[in-house]
Design goal:
By secondary structure, the protein is an alpha+beta fold.
């Protein structure tokens, strides 16, 4: 997620967003994030260091969805995407979450390999105007799915490609996709 005045640092344990200006922190959004940590958001802590706000996400128990493409079979991929869709539907049904602050890049979508539960990054920042349009949000998801499958096309079997077709069908809403899977 590229946003002016916000810088990302990553290691194996954490994903850190440094906000150049204190006004970039969206406090209400941070409170929503804390309330949803058990419902699909990566656990986040906020601190101020050297006058800059930092949002620190604990990713130590996860792997990125992108990194698992070559490891998972079609059944695991299906389970992960059903779980991801459940998280996205929960988000879509919450009027307090700003879709623009959801990072749908699969390098920042995290999977617990023990149970295939999916956790995503919600970045509570003020970015000016918002587009809380559900159709636009779903199109962003479809785009991420297309990129994921295009990057890893050679490792997927026919069942996985069927999953891709369901997830990228423009006439399916998130709920339809989950039901079809």
């Amino acid at each position: 997620m590229q946003i002016g005045g916000v810088y990302e640092q990553r290691d194996a344990q954490s994903l850190i967003y440094i906000l150049e200006e204190p006004s970039l922190l969206f406090v209400e959004g941070y409170n929503v994030l804390k309330a949803y940590e058990e419902k699909g958001f990566v656990k986040c802590n906020h601190l101020t260091r050297d006058g800059k706000e930092q949002l620190i996400y604990d990713i130590s128990n996860y792997r990125t969805l992108s990194s698992l493409a070559t490891v998972f079979n079609s059944e695991a991929i299906k389970t992960v995407f059903v779980n991801l869709l459940s998280v996205l539907i929960e988000i879509k049904n919450n009027e307090f979450i700003q879709y623009d602050n959801i990072d749908l890049n699969f390098d920042n979508v995290f999977v617990d390999c023990n149970n295939y539960q999916v956790n995503i990054i919600y970045l509570p920042i003020n970015i000016g105007s918002y587009c809380n349009d559900a159709l636009f949000f779903e199109d962003k998801f479809r785009h991420s799915v297309r990129v994921f499958f295009e990057k890893n096309y050679k490792v997927f079997d026919e069942k996985s490609l069927d999953i891709r077709n369901i997830l990228t069908a423009s006439d399916f809403r998130l709920e339809d996709m989950r039901q079809k899977l």
